[in-house]
Design a protein that fits this description.
2 domains, four-stranded mixed β-sheet, 217 residues, 2,3-Dihydroxybiphenyl 1,2-Dioxygenase, domain 1, 33% helix, 8 strands, alpha/beta
């Protein structure tokens, strides 16, 4: 029933638009010649885009493919500011964490020195003069720093927390015994394998974690 009509449709519209094998269960509209104002879609699209099809290549999809930027155009195109920023971020070299800041209420300096200095054994660092008037205390913790900053509308952090790594499991047990003797509540945790750790809170209720690799791990 389809015969030459299906062949004419496929030849007119191109293989990219119409399948080579048509379903015979449904009638196919007869093709009408593109004369006068009745033009096929591919011709209308070419007229609107002011494009001419190359010899042997016809159909709407061919016209759309000609609109895609060529590879040389992509290379010659000037990069946007966002692309330059993303490229710079990819090439950035991070050396680690410089410091972690914990919030504390006003007048926290004495408690900070007692807890982080006396109990934890961290060395206090002098604050820069422009920042000293804001209050708070800085401490050295290995290659990083712990900054205790004053926050007017203070609320303790119960979820987000820093984790302090100790040199050995024996040092971790010694620190925990010292904190318990000072009245600091500690909580054991064994959810992570090959890691010894416990949780505690600073004098203002901020969550702290202390970890060490088990002996022989």
């Amino acid at each position: 029933m389809l015969g030459s009509d299906s062949e004419q449709l496929v030849g007119e519209w191109g293989e990219d638009i119409w399948p080579t094998r048509l379903d015979t269960r449904f009638p196919v509209p007869r093709r009408r010649p593109c004369v006068g104002r009745k033009r096929c879609r591919s011709r209308v699209l070419r007229l609107r885009l002011n494009l001419r099809p190359t010899s042997g290549q016809r159909g709407v999809r061919h016209v759309l493919r000609r609109l895609e930027p060529r590879e040389k155009d992509r290379v010659a195109r000037k990069p946007t500011k966002l692309a330059v920023a993303l490229h710079s971020a990819d090439n950035a070299t991070f050396r680690g964490i410089d410091h972690v800041q914990l919030a504390a209420p006003p007048g926290c300096e004495a408690e900070a020195r007692r807890f982080f200095g006396d109990l934890l054994g961290l060395r206090e660092l002098p604050k820069p003069l422009p920042l000293a008037a804001r209050g708070g205390v800085w401490f050295q913790c290995g290659g990083q720093q712990i900054h205790i900053g004053v926050e007017g509308d203070f609320r303790p952090s119960k979820k987000a927390h820093p984790a302090f790594r100790l040199s050995s499991e024996a040092a971790l047990r010694s620190l925990r015994e010292r904190l318990v003797a000072a009245g600091v509540h500690t909580r054991d945790d064994q959810e992570i394998e090959a890691t010894a750790r416990f949780f505690a809170e600073d004098p203002w209720g901020n969550r702290l974690e202390f970890v060490a690799s088990p002996t022989g791990a």
